[in-house]
## 1
Amino acid sequence: MNTIHAINGPVVKVAGAKDFSMLEMVYVGDKRLIGEVIGVNDRSTTIQVYENTAGLKIGEPVIPTGAPVCATLGPGIISNIFDGIERPLRDMIKFNGAFVAEGSSIPSLDEEREFDVTVTVKCGDKLTGGMIYCTCPETALITHKCMVPPNVNGTVTYTAENGMQTVYKIYVHRSEEKETEEPSELPEELPVVLPQSGMTPEVVDEELQLTIFHQYTVCEKPEELVLPDGYIETVLLLGEQNIPAYTKQGVPEEFLLLVLRNAEGETGWYQYDRVEQTLQRVYEEQFII
């Protein structure tokens, strides 16, 4: 496990680590403070922490996510006020009072609020990056136009009905010739539906939201990717799509392994924490045994 080697104000260093890349988002310390990799060499990794580091200690863990610092863009962003890492201040007051608490993990967008959504595509339409698949007015003057991510293309196989909907509802399924279907929706980050109860090796359809940045693709496990000892495969039902996932008896039920491919074409293990609703890249030595 990567741990803190040195602390200098908001800057921390991890010695001898090779798991980090430039501008990668990381979680720092036991409180999971949000940080960003700002320097990498053969001796250490330098990280800028975007929260108060008071009380942070040498030896606390630093966890890579495999993704850059990212802002969620979607309906509700205009009518809210955020801090520098897009945590909604009005919601933070409800949980932490007038002061900003370190390590607060609050969804950027209001997941309960409904918007009047109009889907602008139909089944059979061909989609490529930059095309608009639905619209949603947030105010009388401002309408959100939801666009297909630049590295995504395919054919529409499902569309939701127009009407009042929440931001984290699947609006469009698209398919490719050699890949499984993938969802598109209102935010610029794509959620995958996961089970809320304990995992069993069968098809499940209890919904829990997982946000995966749009540069990731859910895929089948390649032969060269070794399944950790004791883990078994299960199937998650996303709409009409089966998503492969992996779990292990005795491991806390909030942890689940997924196989994802990033924008650079690298396929690997990612651990999803259903309690914290976080996703991070994991390597063999980091698996929960």
## 2
Amino acid sequence: MRKKTVHFSVDDTIWLFNDLNSNNYKSAFEQPVLNFFQGLHQRYGLMVSFYCFMRQDWFELSNVTDAYRQEFSDNSSWCRFGFHAYDEQRRYAEVECKLAAADYAGVIEQLDRIVGGALDYWPRIHCYSANREALTAWQKQGLCGVLCPERAEIKVYDLDCKQRQQVNTKGVYLDKSTGLGFLATDIRIEETNCMAEALLAKQHRPHLEIFTHEWALDRDNVKEKIEICCSMLERIGYQGGFYESGR
């Protein structure tokens, strides 16, 4: 019998890299955000991905130290990093394909320098905004699939109504012509009031995707919700796992 798996992810990631630069940590996992998730991995087997911006006005990935590259690679079985967008303003349904391709290549190049083999190729794209040309360009650079919204009414990439419905009812839609996957997100932590009810409603799924944003982790109740979520997932039979095609 195939095990049920759950994967956590953190969007809008960039601040933790700035913190790594500003402090002389002996280990990357002394950094507070990374330390929090490492603790959950040790207690519950949590697996997590951080989807990253290239830059904010005050900082960019090209400034990040590569001193922890080997350590990140050594922890790639449970902690990975992937593309989110160039910055908060970029919408990939609106930009030219060449720019979208360059943005993706640039972020992956920097992440490879910073985290080595700890790369994730199933990211959640900023605002779920990307046209088919952008997705195709990213697929040529290694993209396997993208994460979709937690609510069916949110417009997602360039999927039509029937395709969006399949994502939300079956948990995944695989484009037969390209092999690109569109994977459902199940829960957004900071917008979920009753975690038990939300998880029980989804427990038939063989794989769950649960996420938050890096800026939300400053709120104590968000971290508490994540811990409650991990504990309950363990009780209802889920184990940490990255998505595997064919589930």
## 3
Amino acid sequence: MVEELDIPQWSMDFRIFLARTGLNVKKVSEITGLSYSTVNNFTLGTKRPGIKSCDKIKNGIGFDMLEALYLSDKKEREK
């Protein structure tokens, strides 16, 4: 099981977006065509999305995963 502290910022941003929009993993999977387990891994932060998955998420639900990844990585480098 993943502890809260182990979840990357980009994943937390994705979770917050889903909560604010009323979406869940199943619905995102249906909309984007990504598997349930893939989307679930993104929400847990156990799998980092590639560019194709980021595009499917942005086009499907409007969340810019590439931007979230970039900002998260930038913040990590600044530590």
